[in-house]
């Protein structure tokens, strides 16, 4: 396994991130801004200049301030700069984050089942490792990142000082330089900034190849990788032991990293014919950015109506009170009794106190927001029901829920087809690394990942189905018990079958049992 790498880590200075990833990372950074919901990140992503910080920038494009067609083409709502000296009043509706969370919930609200051949020793070891890596939390985290950033990586690492088994970590798509061959991940280089000091940036590069992991530490700038330095130069990499080729044998011929695309194919022309971008998949936000931008603009407009629509009064100068020379005139809003005010001649019929209340266009804004939300949710590939736009009634059956959420369920099924084989590969490699590094029992002869059904029938529906099958003599007692209790193991099912058979044997006619030659032969144990 000590073969030379196909593409070793860089030995010379180069642009970083690599120029091959520039257009990809630009798009991902925009989706990342929507996912984070940070107004400053959204403004930066769409070209607005921050003029509200401690060192405001003033280099703005004239077209950003233009009206009409020129201004509309030159900017989005989040691309409009905030003038110097003004407070940012733009508001963000975190619908993008809600979409990513919903995608993860659909996939991993119920954990997938790891189906293996019977081997108690290997199963106990796998369960211990999965508990150690927080598997049940790792999957929802990965699912949320994948929905937002086109996909997600999971990699295998180990550190004897941290755990007595290999670990699994999550890496977002914007921190990796992958290599694909015929749609399959062949190798990948992850990077992480471990130190920043002024303009100096120190990065740790970790390249995964079949059977090998290479490590490199580089000191450069924000845009340049810089020179390679010893791993011992930073505490984050000082404990990594490598051979003369700066690598570590993994103990498995499998790649110790997997990439799970969110969903395919990609829709962007700049990605579709790109050797990297065509394999990354697409974000749930791809194509719905204009609607999300319009949603934020509408919500900001609504809140502006609320802000400027506050009740105000205009008070005639004669109604103001003063506490003497040198003091400002004032008007007591809490005073309950006033004396008559003599209006000066020439003032017309104006009252001394005139109330003003601007209209708050609540219904118009609410209708627009609802229409935009429907467009956003549908464009992301989900049903409105998933987000509670049309709340289900208390008596809704699993069949009705499935019909209403058909689009969400279809999207979920698409995504599970990417997750299942990737997780199978990852866990197989994990157990092989565990055998090589921690003397574990090794992988299973057979292992598959099965996702639970998207909708579960209610107990009443299961009971009704079992009753119908019994009346039609279309299923045995064992089959019906397993149907009503799918989570029971063989022992529990056998015990329940015995109890049912025992109860049925007590049900005899009042006049006594039938003669042996007339009693029906009943055998429903199988």
Summarize it.
With 526 residues, the chain is of the alpha+beta class. It has 15 helices and 13 strands. It has a domain at 460-505.
Task: Describe the protein's topology.
Elements: H1 22-36, H2 39-45, H3 62-65, H4 68-74, H5 95-108, E1 113-116, H6 120-132, H7 135-149, E2 151-157, E3 167-172, E4 176-181, E5 184-197, E6 200-209, E7 212-220, E8 227-229, E9 247-249, E10 257-261, H8 269-272, H9 289-308, E11 312-315, E12 353-356, H10 362-379, H11 398-404, H12 406-438, E13 447-450, H13 459-471, H14 477-484, H15 490-505
Antiparallel strand pairs: 1-13, 2-3, 2-10, 4-5, 5-6, 6-7, 7-8, 7-9, 11-12
Shape assignment: flat
* Total beta strand runs: 13
Number of helix segments?
Answer: 15
Strand share of the residues? 15-25%
- Provide the residue-averaged pLDDT: 83
Q: Are there runs of 5+ residues with pLDDT below 50, and where?
A: 1-5, 50-61, 391-395
How far apart, in Å, are the first and last alpha carbons? 52 Å
Query: Helicity, in percent?
Result: 25-40%
Task: Report Rg.
Answer: 33 Å
- SSE order, one letter for each helix or strand: HHHHHEHHEEEEEEEEEHHEEHHHEHHH
Largest sheet: 6 strands, antiparallel
Structural class: alpha+beta
Key terms:
37% helix, 15 helices, Portal_protein_SPP1_Gp6-like, six-stranded antiparallel sheet, single chain, 526 residues, three-stranded antiparallel sheet, alpha+beta, Phage portal protein
Task: Kindly describe this structure.
This protein has a domain at 460-505. The protein starts with 21 loop residues before the first helix and ends in a 21-residue tail after the last helix. It contains 15 helices and 13 strands. It has 526 residues and is of the alpha+beta class. It has helices at 22-36, 39-45, 62-65, 68-74, 95-108, 120-132, 135-149, 269-272, 289-308, 362-379, 398-404, 406-438, 459-471, 477-484, 490-505, and strands at residues 113-116, 151-157, 167-172, 176-181, 184-197, 200-209, 212-220, 227-229, 247-249, 257-261, 312-315, 353-356, 447-450. β4 (176-181) and β5 (184-197) form a beta hairpin.
